[in-house]
Design a protein that fits this description.
With 79 residues, the chain is mainly alpha-helical. The protein has helices spanning 11-16, 21-32, 40-48, 62-70. It starts with 10 loop residues before the first helix and ends in a 9-residue tail after the last helix.
Amino acid sequence: MARCELLEGCIFFNDRMHDYPFAADQMKQQYCLGDNQDCARYLVRNARGKEQVPADLFPTDVVRAEHIIAGADTRPPLA
């Protein structure tokens, strides 16, 4: 398995998931230690840049990622 080069600085896992260790571990196994090309956060970062990745974007939310990449995401980020 390839380790995602962005994992160490990923605010989703380092800031948002500390209260959900089991869920975070499951997602890390799939998206960070597996095929990161399926990770919505990874896709947005590579297409639009780090600053365009909303903190509340789940790795599983590829549909929202596609909207962000297309410039069509109108949802405000969660606080």
